[in-house]
Every structure is written in C-alpha cells, then in structure tokens.
Amino acid sequence: MNEIIQAMLDRRSVRKYKKDPVPKEMLDEIIQAGLYAASGMGRQPTLILAVTDPEMIRKLSRVNCRIGGWDNAFDPFYGAPAILIVLAKKDVPTAIYDGSLVMGNLMLAAHSLGLGSCWIHRAREEFEMPEWQAWLRSLGIHDEYIGIGHCIVGYAAEQPKAAPRAKGRVFYQEAEK
Question: How many CB atoms neighbour CB 62 within 10 A?
C-alpha cells in the first residue's frame, strides 16, 4: 500500500506522552507540512503558534479546563511537551476548512516522524477571550483570527489501536453502462 495512505490508516490520537521534549528541527518539519495544506483559492489564511514553554502550556491548559468545565488538575493536553495552535483569519469564508486541513497535515506529519499527536478543541473559545487576543498582539499578530485547534505533539507513551470502522458510510452513484 502507498506509504501516505498507510500513514492515514495507522495514525491515531495519542492521549499519553513522555516528558521528552520534541527537537525544534522536528517541530519545524511538522509546521512546514502544516503550512503546505490546501486552502481555498490559495489564500493561506492560517497561522501556527508553536508553544513549547511549560509555563505557557500550563496557562493554556488552565483556560482549556475552564472552557471545558473540568477541574484544573485535569490536563487536556495529556502531558504533551509541544502545542501547535492553528488560527485562521476570521474574514476568510473558508477559514475553518483551511485550518482543519492544516491540523490534518500537522497530525500526519507528526506520525510520519514517529511522534504522537491529538487535536484538542476549545481554541475558538480561547482566542475570543481578551487576554488571549492580547497575547496574539504581543506576538505581533494584529488581524482578527479564529482559533481552529491545538495540535498536541510529543513522544507517545502508548500506542492506541484503531476502532473498527463503522459500516454504511460510503455510497456510490456510478455511470450507467
């Protein structure tokens, strides 16, 4: 089978990570794959924020818990040492789709490098908050962006198995002969 298709079949969401940091060179490769995701009309309206600072990850975790309604003791990032946050320009009609394609590329790229990943939600709610909009401005980001997702990345402490695929999800309309 084609190696790209095989990677799509094998990649699973990882929810338990080793503490080992991910080398910057590997994160850069993953980010590059994300930046090459397809986008509507080639607009490339997405940004990727690479967060490896443990204190910033804790802050993101706390706000994510608050949005999700969990106790602060829960870690919605499952101990991952890196978070790649995908944002997309609010005024672009395909923003959510474009950002979702970036997230998919990030997760497949991480898998191809032997790393685990998982899409963690609530980025939209986070980046609607004034304190996180201020953080963006402090980074030099002044346009209006919508949070698409957090791609957590790290060395997997366990390898989840794929659940069986649900039946009845494909329909064909074929040409008559």
Answer: 14
In CATH terms, is domain 21-154 a member of 3.30.499.10? no
- What digits encode the pLDDT tens for the residues 106-144? 999 999 999 999 999 999 999 999 999 999 999 999 999
Nearest-angstrom CA–CA distance, 86 and 58: 18
Q: Is the separation of the CB atoms in 14 and 156 below 8 Å?
A: yes
Confidence of residue 72 (pLDDT cuts 50, 70, 90): confident
Residue-wise pLDDT tens digits, 1-32: 899 999 999 999 999 999 999 999 999 999 99
The residue ranges of every structural domain in the chain are 21-154
